[in-house]
Amino acid sequence: MSDESLKPGLMRRLFGGKPAPTAESAPPPLADEPQAKSLSWWRRLKSGLAKSSSAISRGVTDIFLKRKLDAEALDELEDVLIQADLGLAAATRIRDAVGKGRYDKTIEPDEVRAIMAGEVEAILAPVAKPLVLDLSRKPFVILVVGVNGSGKTTTIGKLAQKFAAEGHKVVMAAGDTFRAAAIEQLRIWASRTGAEIVAREPGADSAGLAFDAVTKAREQGRDIVLIDTAGRLQNRAELMAELEKIIRVMKKVEPTAPHAVLLILDATIGQNALSQVETFKRVAGVTGLVMTKLDGTARGGILVAIAETFGLPVHFIGVGETVDDLEPFEARDFARAIAGLEREP
User: Fold this and answer.
1) Residue 172, strand partner residues
2) I need a surface site. Which of 28, 140, 155, 284 has the fewest CB within 10 A?
3) Quick check: is 33 in a domain?
4) Do 116 and 186 sit in the same domain of this protein?
């Protein structure tokens, strides 16, 4: 199942294997204790990043097993990290940290991976920030943007589920009016989360729909508005202009909106994510990132390159299809998982 084509018959998988609730009732809250849930997330995260960590670990082991550290070994390490899409700046930083004071000495692969984890954590820690809902601005309007297939609609559904579990009243706007499947997908999510949905027929004006959604949320005293948008390539000027129009029109009903603009990034696209961030940041004023599909790629290091380049907050990462596979971003856990290390006690 793709991230953008939810099949209603598989909805129960999105709720951790529990029976899908009826349209009349929101799904029950997860029963996991916080510590158990934390451990469960670590297992999912480590499993999700297995392709990325395995590629890096194999490279590190091939380079440093029973070999003294020299300039050639460090060059090879840098190549492995660049191939994993960590970016030149991060690769050079890790190379320098590994080489410091260790020339002509034997270094174990585990030590190299521990050094890598420490450097990656240092890069990611400043951007690992939760999505803060300022409910003094009610409704708090979240605009969700990204290219085709990045997982916008599914991410909106998962966020609606999380917000509903926290007691927030949500309105979802089915702003991807080009795809009937996206509209239906949000209807399913709305029925299972107790959210209101604002939707029109396929092909309707998405800017007007966003206006209606914010208006409805204000009238009903709802807390949060989640606005879906059509996938658009960052190099299509007319589509980016349409996104600017959506923002301009919603400001007519709420001048401070949108209060958050989330860019959904597909980890499997690697380096192309950098140009997406640059363009959407300029056009839509992106305030934070959500990276999806980390479980489907050996190029999960792109998140490090993005953090190093742009410094934008990373709010959530996704490593699977269920609600619990989208969680707040934690720098240390990500760094240790991608390095192939166990979680620290």
Assistant:
1) 197, 226
2) 28
3) no
4) no
Q: How far is CA 77 from CA 84, 124, 233, 341, in A?
A: 11, 20, 34, 17
Q: How far apart are CA 90 and CA 106, in angstroms?
A: 23
> Is there a cis peptide before residue 126, judged by omega within 30 degrees of 0?
no
Domain endpoint, select from 63, 92, 127: 127
How many whole angstroms separate alpha carbon 68 and alpha carbon 280? 45
- Assess contact for 191 and 170: CB atoms under 8 A: no
289-305 pLDDT tens trace = 999 999 988 889 999 99
Token representation of residue 53: 């960590």
Strand pairing report for 170-173 and 196-198: parallel
Could you tell me the residue range of the domain that residue 216 belongs to? 8-14+129-338
Q: How far apart are CA 301 and CA 55, in angstroms?
A: 11
Distance, CA of 202 to CA of 115 (rounded, Å): 52
The encoded tokens of residue 79 equal: 């190549």
Structural domain total, the chain: 2
Indicate if 250 and 297 belong to the same structural domain.
yes
- Per-residue pLDDT of 75-85, as tens digits, reads 999 999 999 99
| Other Cβ atoms within 10 Å of 256 Cβ, number | 10
Q: How far apart are CA 315 and CA 330, in angstroms?
A: 9
Please check whether residues 123 and 201 belong to one and the same domain. no
Name which of 255, 230, 301, 25 is nearest 137 in CA terms.
Answer: 255
CATH for 119: 1.20.120.140
Domain match, 66 and 153 both: no
- Packing angle, helices 302-310 and 272-284, rounded to 10: 40
Look at residue 87 and tell me whether its pLDDT is greater than 70: yes
